[in-house]
Design brief:
By secondary structure, the chain is of the alpha/beta class. Helix content is 39%, strand content 14%. It has a seven-stranded mixed sheet with strand order 2-8-7-6-5-3-4, with helices on both faces. A three-stranded antiparallel sheet has the order 9-10-12, with helices on one face. It binds pyridoxal-5'-phosphate.
């Protein structure tokens, strides 16, 4: 199996797994049971992981809170901010191309009276910062924009957005799920107020994430979604998942810039070969600033469901894993002005540090053969080639 679906999830790093194993076996204490050694060991392991994350983001350890992953972080932050800031305003600005975790939560909040603005994007997936400024009103409490898009890899100008929010005194919540591990971030230099991410996107375990909440300069208030004990300073109750927390701490510690460079080189090689060797294909958002591991490619008149089904030994995706059972065209690609037909002919290739050049060569060969076959059997393709369709 050649795995090119790393934006959906990644293989766990061996070092990460090794550091987790003792906490699944002999070190099974509850981190809240600090009266005994096993509990204290678990507590210390959690604090070590928190420190690793804080060091990577260049923030304070007490500003990091563990959750089960980005979906939970996003729900908690959006709902919790609306609840605590409703006396100030009820307006949130987000974007049409956000992850479903954001869009579904915003939809639920709007049914309860929140006013949500969904920014449009251009055909490269970029938002217009002037438009963002123009939408800000005295009721705006939060701007929620992702750092990098899971389907296309497009990077939003998060430093500029953070500056706008700072100028206007509005909170900026950034979903960094696809950004961590692919780009460096220094949250002490970028005034992002809240930033979330998930370990399984950067070779850590599934079911663990963290959210950074600026505490140093602003007393940000977020009502908890999960209530109970006093874990995570009452931000997120529930017994700590110690092995997973150890895993996210190691996963962030072992991130390396050398891996990023190697991935970027491979992705560029892949795109160049595809563009020169396959007729009628377009690399989406080629002109935009993108994370280095992602290529979303439109193969004209090749339905993505057919292509994926005919390549059973290659793990590919037509878009977000959360909606992959959905036969509708991707909301991200539609927002970028693709027709339904084109949006349903796009494939996302997402690489990782484990991707090898020889695997990409095999994928290119397989794509060439399979796309040719699908097109030869397609009356629509024949019509297009004879100039009857555009
Ligand atoms: N946000 C983005 C941009 C994502 O890509 C994902 C996962 O696909 C999520 C949020 C949800 O993350 P999790 O799987 O940790 O719930």
């Amino acid at each position: 199996m050649i795995y090119l679906d790393n934006n959906a999830t990644t293989r766990i790093d061996d070092t990460v797994l090794e550091t987790m194993l003792p906490y699944l076996k002999e070190e099974y204490g509850n981190a809240a049971s600090i009266q005994h050694k096993l509990g204290r060991n678990a507590h210390q392991a959690i604090e070590k992981a928190r420190n690793n994350i804080a060091r990577h983001l260049q923030v304070q350890a007490k500003e990091i809170f563990f959750t089960s992953g980005s979906t939970e972080s996003i729900s908690t932050v959006l709902k919790g901010i609306c609840e605590r800031y409703n006396s100030i305003g009820n307006h949130i600005i987000t974007c049409q191309t956000e992850h479903k975790a954001v869009l579904s939560t915003c939809e639920a909040l709007s049914k309860k009276g929140a006013n949500i603005t969904y920014l449009a994007v251009d055909d490269q997936g970029n938002i217009n910062l002037e438009e963002l400024r123009n939408h800000i009103t005295k009721d705006t409490i939060l701007i929620c924009l992702m750092a990098a898009n899971n389907e296309t890899g497009i990077i939003h100008p998060i430093a500029e957005i953070a500056t706008i929010c700072q100028e206007k005194g509005i909170l900026f919540f950034c979903d960094g799920t696809q950004y961590i591990g692919k780009e460096n971030i220094n949250l002490s230099a970028t005034p992002i107020d809240i930033f979330c991410f998930s370990a399984h996107k950067f070779h850590g375990p599934k079911g663990i994430g963290a959210v950074y909440i600026r505490r140093k300069t602003k007393p940000i208030q977020i009502a908890p979604l999960i209530m109970g004990g006093k874990q995570e300073n009452s931000f997120r109750a529930g017994t700590h998942n110690v092995p997973n927390i150890v895993g996210i701490g190691t996963a962030i510690e072992v991130l390396s810039n050398a891996d990023k460079e190697q991935i970027a080189e491979l992705r560029n090689y892949f795109e160049k070969r595809i563009e020169t060797e396959i007729d009628e294909c377009i690399v989406l958002a080629k002109k935009a600033n993108r994370i280095a591991n992602t290529s979303n490619i439109l193969f004209k008149y090749v339905p993505n469901s057919q292509l994926i089904a005919k390549l059973p030994n290659i793990a590919l995706s037509s878009g977000s894993a959360c909606v992959s059972g959905d036969r509708n065209p991707s909301h991200v690609l539609k927002a970028m002005h693709l027709s339904d037909n084109d949006a349903l002919s796009c494939i996302r290739f997402s690489l990782s540090k484990y991707t090898k050049k020889i695997e990409l060569d095999t994928v290119i060969d397989e794509l060439k053969k399979t796309i040719h076959k699908i097109r030869m059997e397609s009356p629509i393709w024949q019509m297009y080639k004879s100039g009857l369709l555009h």
